UniProtKB/TrEMBL annotation:
Pfam families: LytTR (PF04397), Response_reg (PF00072). Residues 132-229 form the HTH LytTR-type domain. Keywords: Phosphoprotein. This is Stage 0 sporulation protein A homolog. GO terms for molecular function: DNA binding; phosphorelay response regulator activity. It comes from the Bacteria.
Length: 233
């Protein structure tokens, strides 16, 4: 069980963090608990009993600010992974004093939040097999990301393409994209492809597993760059 704290005195900013964090943790199949605090004082009062593994801490808050709160946490010998969230990059260097793990600048970008979360989970040793979770009438299905070749959209329906076939569900490709790691790359308005399964680029598309997928001119250059980098790794 991973326990994550969010400390911010603005409810809408708490939600802006909580929603992508929950989505990602569900995708990973992790058991988790998220504790929210509206002030540094509330955080310190509950920190010893809540056992936080990871803390997203706003710096600019009324009352006890984030930096003062972090110093108090460290004096309590807390080894919580500390991630500052702030609209003020000037505070970055002060974070060294409290062993901050990372910074996220406001306004939040979901991809940045998820990137930092993955790094923190790796530090905790909790990042194992990753899954995409699909809710169907028969129940909830978890598809390992490494088995997914691509996602394809058709109006309100999205299809997961694998070597064994395809799985359909209702959704939007843009929302799916927000939940995925960076090796899933947009190649067309209707397609997201798993870079790890792309074996060749053609003038009008790419070979991804046993599928030939279209590549639009809009996304051609970014695919070529990403594919070249993947070959060098």
């Amino acid at each position: 069980m991973i326990t994550i704290g969010i400390c911010d005195d603005e409810p809408k900013m708490q939600k802006a963090l909580r929603v992508p964090l929950e989505r990602k943790l569900q995708l990973l199949g992790e058991e988790y608990r998220i504790q929210e605090y509206a002030s540094g004082e509330a955080l310190l009062a509950g920190s010893q009993t809540d056992g936080l593994d990871i803390l997203f801490l706003d710096i600019k808050m009324d009352g006890l600010n984030g930096m003062e709160t972090a110093r108090s946490l460290r004096r309590m010998e807390s080894d919580t992974i500390l991630i500052f969230v702030t609209a003020y990059p000037d505070f970055v260097f002060q974070g060294y004093d409290v062993h901050a793990f990372h910074y996220i600048l406001k306004p939040y970008e979901d991809r940045k939040i998820l990137e930092v979360l993955e790094q923190a989970l790796k530090l905790l040793g909790n990042l194992g097999e990753q899954y995409y979770t699909v809710e169907q009438k028969s129940g909830i299905l978890r598809v390992p990301l490494k088995h997914i070749l691509a996602f394809c959209s058709d109006r309100r329906k999205v299809s997961i393409l694998t070597a064994d076939g395809k799985l359909d569900f209702y959704g939007k490709l843009g929302e799916v994209e927000k939940q995925l790691p960076d090796y899933f790359i947009r190649i067309h308005n209707r397609y997201l492809a798993n870079l790890n399964h792309i074996t060749a680029l053609e003038p009008d598309g790419c070979v991804c597993g046993d599928h030939f997928l279209p590549v639009s001119r809009t996304y051609r250059q970014q695919l070529e760059i990403a594919f070249a980098r993947a070959l060098l790794q």
